[in-house]
Amino acid sequence: MKYHFLTALIIAATMTQAVAQVASHAPTTGAKTSAFQTATLQPTGKPVAKVNGTVLTDKDLLREMYAIFPYAKQNNGFPKAQEAGIRQGALEMIIFEEMVYQEAQRRKMTIPAAKIDQAETAFRQQFETPDQFQQYMQMEMHGSRQQLRAQIERSMLIDQLLKQEVDNKSTVTPAQVRAYYDKNGARFQMGESYSFQSISVIPPLKPTPPQATEARKKATDALAQAKATKNAQEFGLLAEKISEDDYRVNMGDHKIVPAEKLPPQIIAAFKTMKPGQVSSLIQIETAYTIVRLNAHTLAHKQSFEEVKGQLGPELQKEKYEQLRVSLAKELRAKSKIEVS
Questions:
Q1: Closest Cα partner for 62 from 21, 2, 5, 18?
Q2: Within a 10 A sphere around the Cβ of 59, how many other Cβ atoms?
Q3: What's the pLDDT at 248?
Q4: For the chain, which residues score pLDDT lower than 50?
Q5: What pLDDT, on a 0 to 100 scale, did the predictor assign at position 146?
Q6: SS3 at position 205
Q7: In whole angstroms, what is the distance from residue 215 CA to residue 284 CA?
Q8: Residues 127-157, buried b or exposed e (16+ Cβ, 10 A)?
Q9: In angstroms, rounded to a whole number, what is the distance separating the alpha carbons of residues 200 and 252?
Q10: Over pLDDT 90: what percentage of the chain?
């Protein structure tokens, strides 16, 4: 949440420009239906919610919608299929932020003037020219520097309380990471898997005799070329050129696949191969496949050293979300929320 205030205010600065842009591109009667919804980009300042009597407007809502879906400006609106979800998420967020701000005030939390000065300077630097900043001040702050500083202070207070109640408390120690690993051993059990590339020749589902003969010839020619490749790179380039399966766009690479998800014909071939080897023709129904085995990993339990790098951030993120949800519930329990 650090420096969230800069993001929020910059979004407010671009919001008015976006509304003007959308208005100039508004569809006329009979125009082709767009996948994006533009009607929501016309804030009028009407209330959308009240938090303990403090009014939140559709302008606040739209600002947060832009934060959730920043591509709305360049697309002249929000995706119709997602607009309702984005709106609801934004509404929940502005209500939450207002509750946090009011809680910070209740606790008599303060921001030193020097820090507000620094934040104001940083905010000004986000604009390309002084004229852009002045335009923003007139349109969004009615020319009032005091109002700007009040908005900056509000956002910094929100950040400060969230840091105190969520960020600082979501820290996960190495000992806690280790304890989770020891307690959830089953999660780290990995089944047998294979990493490989493929080249396939796929005739029609019910090929005629001539089609079947042609497919066999193509597969035999492909096998000769595959056997001539010296490494995964050469095999992959050949796959891109001649393979007919979907993996050709990725150099035939299937990455890591659990053994139980592979056809028995492929498993049987792998049992006779070493990493780096290319199989003979493998027929599965009417199709022919050639595979290059890149790696074979036996069933095993991942070591703590393997997983601790990703497990720590994962547990911290989970704890952060739990604390944030808990804080929201606590604040709602003592707040009066009215949604328009």
A1: 18
A2: 17
A3: 95
A4: 1-3, 16-33, 39
A5: 95
A6: coil
A7: 13
A8: beeeeebeebbeebbeeeeeebbebbbbbbb
A9: 9
A10: 78
pLDDT computed for residue 115 by the predictor: 95
Strands 300-301 and 189-190: antiparallel
Q: Dihedral of the CA atoms 254, 258, 259, 263 (nearest 10)?
A: -50
The 3-state DSSP composition of the chain as helix, strand, coil percent (nearest 5) reads: 60, 15, 25
Q: Which of 146, 262, 141, 285 is nearest to 207 (CA)?
A: 285
Residue (of 197, 186, 190, 185) closest to 298 by Cα position: 190
Residue ranges of domains in the chain, CATH in brackets: 4-172+328-339 (1.10.4030.10), 192-298 (3.10.50.40)
- pTM for the complete prediction? 0.70
53: left (phi over 0), alpha (psi -120 to 50) or beta: left
Q: What is the pLDDT of residue 139?
A: 85
CA pair distance 63, 144, nearest whole angstrom: 20
